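User: tokens in, sequence out, please.
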């Protein structure tokens, strides 16, 4: 294993509450809780009954979702759009 790569210190990493994450993602806390149960959404941490999200994990989730959307957009076939040459 390469010791030169520094991992972020999680003890010092900013943490977010489920309410704050739900607000940032534009979903309800209930939806966020359902995602946790289904293994979807950003990675959540739990100590005792306290649920939290690392800010970096929420960012990573957003990047992942954006990349999925771009990949999906590129693989879709365009239907009903005529090219300029076909209009002649």
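Assistant: Sequence out:
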């Amino acid at each position: 294993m390469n010791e030169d790569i520094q991992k972020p210190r999680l003890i010092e990493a900013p943490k977010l509450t489920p309410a704050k994450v739900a607000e940032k993602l534009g979903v309800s806390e209930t939806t966020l809780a359902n995602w946790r149960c289904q293994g979807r959404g950003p990675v959540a941490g739990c100590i005792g009954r306290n649920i939290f999200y690392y800010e970096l994990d929420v960012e990573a989730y957003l990047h992942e979702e954006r990349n999925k959307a771009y990949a999906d957009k590129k693989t879709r076939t365009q239907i009903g759009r005529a090219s300029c040459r076909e209009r002649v």
